[in-house]
Amino acid sequence: MNLTAHKREAYQLIRIALPIFTAQLALTSLGVVDTIMSGWVGVNDLAAIGLGTSILLPVFIFATGILLAMTPITARFLGQKNSTAIGYNLTQGLWLAIPIGLVSMLLLMIPQPLLNLLQLSPQVYDLTVDYLFYAALGLPGVALYQVYRFFWEGLGITLPTLYLSVGALLLNIPLNALFIYGYGPIEGMGAVGCGVATAIVMWSMLLGGWLYVRYATKTQVYRQPGLVGPDWKKGFKPILLLGVPMAFSLLFEVGMFSFVVLFIAPLGTTVIGAHQIAMSFTSLLFMLPLSLAMAMTVRVGFGYGENSREAVKTSISVGVAFALFFGIALSLFTLTFREVFVSLYTSHPEVFHIAAMLFIFAASYQVFDAIQVAMAGALRGLHDTQVTMWVTLISYWGVGLGGGYWLAFANPFGEPLGVYGFWFGIIAGLALAAVLLILRLRWMMQHVDFKS
After folding, report:
1. How far apart are CA 166 and CA 73, in angstroms?
2. 0.90 exceeded by the pTM?
């Protein structure tokens, strides 16, 4: 083992991952802030945010997943020292983001067919529809921003993501206060106001991303001379071939968590609120292993572009060590401070009790979650995404969601477990995904033809 190479790689991973982590923490905090501030209005507003977020997230994640292909493609071109291809890929990503953002917006504006399947009170139904309508207006802007973000992250530049994400959080808080509670001539809109604030924040992030790419010295070399139009064969197709499986993989994972809310809706707003609290907090913690995985994509992609097996192996081994450490640390942190954090969200006794129990389940899966997301990040760097898509489908929707539903409502071993059954399913699904992705990465490292 080359300790010097491993130390250098650890430094590079931390250098890339730390700003991404802080940025992801800030972005996820947007949802936490929405949950807390709407929860102060009432249980119905809290339930509407929970349901609305569960519908918005899969749409947002699918669009983001496609555009996430920008990172490994850019990293590989960087390893090949092909600046022309990097700039061309950025332009094509922006063209592709336009229809992706518009389709995402239209989908969120018509949630009624899905909500009609649920047993919701009229007030929660109306709040959810209106929240999604306003939040949807921001999706075209954030799709374009994601292209800029994944472009500079593929170059190993992550500080712009940090600055813009923290700025978005700081902007979101007063906007939430203004539109949720009202001020002066602006009447309070409750949970719906979160949607208005979200849309404004999304377009603000696009403005910031454009300004950075337009004027930063580090990005000037990648600017294209003149106007370059959309190109299906050389532009869209490579992004879609890599990005669509990635999008489905992310959708299957996020969908497993999001659709639980839809299935437990008949159990009442108390259970929905408790589940939303647990998911809101654990999603915040997940940003640490997720950021590491995104850094691994960049480093593995760079080594892949250089055709260096040794560089890729070093990136993977250091990344896995970090992932295992983070998973154990987060699990212990969740168990130790679960009641403290639940109390920040609610003082409702029944909601508090259920949420505190769900934190124990969350602590049980965090090691598996950290390992599987690290494996997926490394595979993205190797431009291998299709197998990951099938693994996540089987693990998350087959075992996690399907098995969880079975335990929740038709447990053959005893009384149905309700919401706890779904969380048992989540643990099993994440454990299976971790094992299968480890096996896939080992296979890839044996079969990829490196030149060095």
Report:
1. 26
2. no
Alpha-carbon span 162 to 445, nearest angstrom: 32
Distance CA 351, CA 291 (A): 31
Q: Is 225 left (phi over 0), alpha (psi -120 to 50) or beta?
A: beta
User: Within a 10 A sphere around the Cβ of 202, how many other Cβ atoms?
Assistant: 24
Task: Render each residue's pLDDT in the chain as its tens digit; 452 residues.
Answer: 567 888 888 898 899 888 988 888 787 777 777 777 776 676 777 777 778 887 888 888 888 889 999 999 998 898 888 888 888 889 999 999 999 999 999 998 988 888 887 777 777 888 888 888 999 999 999 999 999 999 999 998 989 999 999 999 899 888 888 887 877 677 767 777 888 888 999 999 999 999 999 888 888 888 777 677 888 888 889 999 989 999 998 888 777 776 777 787 777 778 888 887 888 788 778 888 999 999 999 899 888 888 888 888 999 999 999 999 999 999 999 888 888 878 877 777 788 888 888 888 888 889 999 999 999 999 999 989 899 999 999 999 999 888 888 888 876 666 777 778 888 888 999 999 999 999 999 999 888 877 65
User: Residue holding tokens 């370059």?
Assistant: 228
Q: Which of 32, 72, 120, 125 is nearest to 302 (CA)?
A: 72
Closest CA to 143 of 258, 64, 27, 53: 64
Q: What is the largest CA-CA distance in the chain?
A: 68
Which pair of structure tokens corresponds to residue 46?
Answer: 């809290």
Cα 125 from Cα 133, distance rounded (Å): 13
DSSP annotation of 340 reads: H
**Token pair of 64 as six digits:** 């983001």
Buried b (16+ CB within 10 A) or exposed e, 20-40: bbbbbbbbbbbbbbbbbbbbe
Residue 74 and residue 146 in contact, taking contact as beta carbons nearer than 8 Å: no
Nearest to 191 by CA among 236, 247, 134: 134
Spatial separation of the C-alpha atoms in residues 138 and 196, rounded to whole Å = 9
| Calpha distance 65→93 (Å, rounded) | 12
Residues 6+ apart with CB under 8 A from 343: 352
3-state secondary structure of 133: helix
Ranges of each domain in the chain: 3-447
